[in-house]
């Protein structure tokens, strides 16, 4: 039986990317996401993502899509420019493409940054379909997505005597992954996929004395900030601000605004990014659904 969703061709994905380019002021993370998707096709990472729409031309009007990234742990990004989510919910309800079956990389499927307009309906649908949600405190928590326009990217101070800042390298991912509280067996490889594709791989602060990485922010599937962290013994030294400034400048040079999500009530992170000039866009949720075996 034919599924309600069809995979977009590369040509149609370019059309969808153009639609979101026209909405990059309010949805900058999805503009950079589609740039990553197109780059994946161009450099031969053909299995990185599959973008699906309803089997009609409605996506050309309302931009409704569901993107599946199956490698190294199944991730899903979805959205619609129609705030009612009519076609989006029809797609999720009727499709058989996403069974959340056994995945050797990870025992859950992650819905990335679900917009507040659609979260209640998607949460209800998952409950009706008897999906069990992951209990980790990181998931199914409300966050806010923040943006810093590329024209406002702050300058990076050059007078620090103890550290230097540069782009992350693949060899840095081991320590980053070891300190990531929601790591899983293939999460380091997932990070590697992201930094291969993103306009900025992420940024790190290194000690001049021994070149140790002590603070970092990594690129996500959106090509934007995730996993901002400073090692405990190096906190309260301004290193988090340095890596955010560096990544914002790197993204700006590539023509992108800088985005990141922050848990509601995280006063330290909200204070940091507010001071740097970020503004709040909307609330979102990360939903992790246990795969069925």
From TrEMBL:
Gene3D superfamilies named among the record's database cross-references: 3.40.630.30
GO molecular function, one term: acyltransferase activity, transferring groups other than amino-acyl groups
Domain of life: Eukaryota
Organism per entry: Ceutorhynchus assimilis (cabbage seed weevil)
Protein name (Swiss-Prot/TrEMBL): N-acetyltransferase domain-containing protein
Residues annotated as domain N-acetyltransferase: 163-293
Signal peptide segment: none
Matches recorded under PROSITE patterns: GNAT
A Pfam family assignment: DUF5645
